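Structure ticket #2291
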Amino acid sequence: MTTFRALSRVLLKCDLRDPATLIFTFLVPPALLVVLVLTVGRAVDAVDEVSANVLAFGTAFVGIYAGATHLAEWRANGMIRVLRAAPVSRGVVLGSQAAVGVGFALAQALLLVVIGSLPWLGMTPAATAALAIPGVVLGYLVFFFLGVLLANWVPSMSAVSMLTSIIIMLLGFVGGAMMPLESLPGWVQATSPLTPLYHLRELISHPLIQVGDWPATWWAIVYLCAASAGLYALVRSVMRWT
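Resolution: structure written out below.
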């Protein structure tokens, strides 16, 4: 536990000093929120839905970005070998980084809700909005472990960054976070429920803006719990120290 806390403090300090982490966590998603609400949201009278979608997409984006780029960077600068020599287990490395990342994801979610609730944007959070917190946590963990998995397969930092960007944009489109599913082709609507971003949207939207129902919400919880547990087990088994 002492090692976990010590490593978490180090990772937190590093992330707070990293311009890329701060920009992609606290600048890009709010900018995306403002643009989409003022364009798509106002055009189709769906400000609340667009705001919830951006929150889900932002959670997924920072999760996959953190999981992939941090591990790739540690390999490039030799930090991963230092951790192995400490010695630190794979579980501690993954757990401490995930814990720090969850904190960033929750801070980002709060920022997006505050900005979205400003009068000139017009989102109206429901009284149950705080119940969206488990969705943010589960969604972050799924995409964080997915990012770590990608970093294990892709050899370079530039390749990891490019691949994660492609994957998150594709999942954002197919999962219905970028555009309303009703306006997308039939094959996208049929495929969407298979994606984690679709269920992350379900789990956030129901408590945050009262869109959806409890059966879909409970199924989203089961899906994301199973996905995060399965990806964690897979990452622990394939994670390389070199």
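Closing remark: The chain has a mean pLDDT of 91.
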